[in-house]
Design goal:
Its EC number is 6.3.5.5. Composed of two chains; the small (or glutamine) chain promotes the hydrolysis of glutamine to ammonia, which is used by the large (or ammonia) chain to synthesize carbamoyl phosphate. Tetramer of heterodimers (alpha,beta)4. Keywords: Amino-acid biosynthesis, Arginine biosynthesis, ATP-binding, Ligase, Magnesium, Manganese, Metal-binding, Nucleotide-binding, Pyrimidine biosynthesis, Repeat. Helix content is 34%, strand content 20%. Strand 21, helix 20 (585-600) and strand 22 form a beta-alpha-beta unit. The strands form seven sheets. The chain has a seven-stranded antiparallel β-sheet with strand order 14-13-10-11-12-15-16, sandwiched between helices.
Length: 950
Amino acid sequence: MPKNEKLKSILIIGSGPIIIGQACEFDYSGTQALRSLREDGIETILINSNPATIMTDPSMADHVYLKPLNTKSIIEILKEHPQIDAVLPTMGGQTALNLCIEADEKGIWEDFDVEIIGVDIDAINITEDREQFRELMLKIGIPMAPQATANSYLKGKEIAQEFGFPLVIRASYTLGGAGASFVYKEEDFDKLLTRGLEVSPIHEVMIDKALIGWKEYELELLRDNNDNVVIICTIENMDPMGIHTGDSITVAPAMTLSDKTYQRMRDMAIHMMRSIGDFAGGCNVQFAVSPDENEDIIAIEINPRVSRSSALASKATGYPIAKIAAKLAIGYNLDELDNQITKSTSALFEPTLDYVIVKIPRWNFDKFEGSDRTLGLQMKSVGEVMAIGRSFQEALHKATQSLEIKRNGLGADGKGYKDYDQIIEKLTYASWDRVFVIYDAIQMGIPLSRIHEITKIDMWFLKQYEELYNLEKEISTYTIQSLTKDLILEAKQKGFADRQIAHMVGCYESEIYQKRDELGIKRVYKLVDTCAAEFKAETPYYYSTFEAEVETPEGDIYIANESKASDKKKIVVLGSGPNRIGQGIEFDYCCVHGVLASSECGYETIMINCNPETVSTDFDVADKLYFEPVFWEHIYDIIRHEKPEGVIVQLGGQTALKLAEKLDRYGIKIIGTSYQSLDLAEDRGSFSTLLKNNNIPYPEFDTAETADEALAVADRLNFPILVRPSYVLGGQGMKIVINKKELEEHVVDLLRKIPNNKLLLDHYLDGAIEAEADAICDGENVYIIGIMEHIEPCGIHSGDSNATLPPFNLGEFVMQQIKDHTHKIALALNTVGLINIQFAIKDDMVYIIEANPRASRTVPFIAKAYGEPYVNYATKVMLGAKKVTDFDFKPHLEGYAIKQPVFSFNKFPNVNKKLGPEMKSTGESILFIDDLKDDQFYDLYSRRKMYLSK
């Protein structure tokens, strides 16, 4: 059946601000769905309150509503657009589904004659109501773990008595495993049961017999109106049952599943999807498999929507699940749609992988002091990385290199744990760094059988680790001179970085690079083609690997490289890597705009990034996508292969900026602001000297590189003192100290975590107002795109502050100083592109806190509030294609826009929730108000000092 011609106008519900458990994978799926519907000439109306995403860009939908996600907003939009025929709620995560259900219960869709597409309400209710789901599964013959529902404390106690321990408690209608927990012993049960009942919006929990040590798998399915079903991807969790899939290390395709069991699992998944409702769209199904000969399969849950895993599966296979799901929702069938990558096969053709994918989550526990760092049923990660390799070992290494936690891969960097008890503890209570700890355990000589017994990780994975360690051991017996070509090639094929090999033989990274270059051991690039090269792929989506040389019958020696470098002018945009607190989706927004603007200027665009959740790694955003770690060795090889005009670093947050020094040293052109200017702004001491020379006020300060120097500085400055390290993002390591003891403790701790750092000690301006400005500069002209005033006082990180655009309480004299200082600093730093400057205002005097000549977190917010594509303009300025004076700026905003931070403290119940100079928010929403009499503004303003911590 072709497209349903009755559907002319569709409302899409977004997922709102980013929280732990619901991140930018829904920005990616929502963006794909919008683009997919517009291809069919359908009018799209979007509601989403997140200003940082590409999804809410005016170019994405015909009408974008940056409104709170509630039924009041839905009614306003439906009144404004009576032409809306249908709502698609499956692209915005649990938030969108919950809102859709609430609107349905209130009769809103019926009142406005709006059809729900992509899922049916019954399917959502069946899958969310664990009791209904269980009954249905048993009816259709799908095995489930023994479980029962409790909607009271007493009922919960009865169930526990019947099942015995260990147990699993899961709260109904929650996201990211909120309220879920393992209960190993009776004395913990009361507290965890109460918490589960409180967290569930309907005060209901499901209590399961715990399947400790079983293996966990996920399948991604798509179904059309003709009941055709395709399985896009099978994902195996390296971690056994008991760790939320969002916190698990996962591998695709499944590695340790027998074909017979896989076929049974496929049949069960299809049977489950067909039984929950009659709808066309996507589904994610999770199973547990017993780790014995029988391989018994038990169903865990099914989600009738695109999910975190479907974003991963899309990037893993190159099959755009959300795009196809949107087409199915409007009536197309799978056999009527093209495979987007081959263009010659149909979407009914199931992807085949001739490579291995490894996903590793990225955590931010350092932001939540006192948090429980062990992993369990409640998701705690803030982002993830994905890597592609020819083998599990290569992909695992590339994924660990993508994490940006100062590790070069597994082992071979001198940073592993060496204490036996600590290693056993970290394996027993799944720790966030267990991917490294397994290697440390093998290195220490702990037998694989013991590691398996503790972790229940399949022996196949552990043997892969052991092989890596044995290779490290062998290479360590060589010197750089005696190292053979075969050994270097084997190490590279197993994913070891040059830096690691250099560590093994005791030489510099550059010497290894040079040696393998001379020996002809070079990276080659392979296509992600969805069909194991059975058909030609049309889409330039690549990953790197190492291959042995092949000799042709004619005697020619070659290595197959599928990425052909064109002779066009090219620009490389460095992505921002995994999401984390302090560097989120707003930098992905900037990268995508940077790519699109470079394309408009006639360049071939090349994107390098490793984040599977984002729009920048969609296969049709840039002309070429390299799904690779944002890690020096990989980047340098791509640059040598592609020979671009230059590299854009100022759009990818601290990840890309950190690589500016290396690029500069290797003579690679940085587009826009030079490395010297970027470095000057990052080096706290040099920047303060620049301010001094330009007569710009700043708080009294001094720099220190040791604890002794810091204590000497404290004698000259008055407490409180703000301590700040150089070259960090999100206020990492910043703290206000009020006496010498606190100062010494913090400085010692900082220098242990960030050795050789230059610390800046500022006299903290107590009670000052904080403001910030973003501007575009071309080296001669400066245009301020927005000035924001923070509602909270100075001392709370700008990412955690409610920021108001335009300012609500700054007089003309203060505003003029802000404008003057911004112009002066932008020009003094030789800025070409974007710059963000932060100010503290005390007694009508404007002091400078810091300046960052790069894209900032607030640029997308200002662009959405004023309706102007500022990143597009800034990129054209960076490329030298335009001057600031060439643009006709027409910002439009009635009233005020407020950037409101969103926190995920509920994932860490015992953590101190006070705010300070180090950022803790995971996302943000935008709130528009007509004037300052608005109750919401009054409420924010009255609470502005509540959370301030020294």
